[in-house]
Fold this protein.
Amino acid sequence: MLKLFYWTTPNGHKPVLFLEETGLPYEVVPVNISKGEQFNPDFLKIAPNNRIPALVDLEPIGGKEPLSLFESGAILLYLAEKTGQFISGNIYQRAEVLQWLFWQMGGLGPMAGQNHHFVQYAPEKIPYAIKRYVDETNRLYGVLDRRLADREFVAGGDYSIADMAIYPWIVPYQSQQQDLNDFPHLKRWFETIKVRPATVRAYDLANRVNQNSTVSPESRSILFGQTSRRK
């Protein structure tokens, strides 16, 4: 059994996509980040960076004690290696999957995240910051579009954890001020993943868990007012 500590963010969706594809049994433990539940001491034992998602594998292969992980990319890689699914055993194909997984973790996710912040959440609209991150998101969409020009999925070959990592960050393309019609190969890839039964189930779960995604002034303070001495 797997326990998934989850909220309905792009990073939160990633392991759900994997778990729904594989049918692994898992229990969802909602962590409402707008209410500050990510600072619960029990959660911090699993996720010291106070971010979701986190995972506890109660029956790790070759282990006697439960194994806990934080960081969505690490979780996807762990699950892929645990099951032998959605990552190739071929050294060349595996390298393709890993570099695009890290591209999302180090590039698309952080840049699109800053896009979300300055466009949607920042109390002061700063034109330079908005343009900086909208433009960088656009550049990264272009990288992805060119990559997909001659292959069905990001790493080439079959659907993989690289696709699962990237897809949730493309879902809010409209709020990122992007037009998928400008990226035809990316749009084709996006529409293909969107209708996969596991994807539909993953986003149905999100709708059940979080029925109110409004960010209030209080929740904005919780989400964006953190320092090393959290207030």
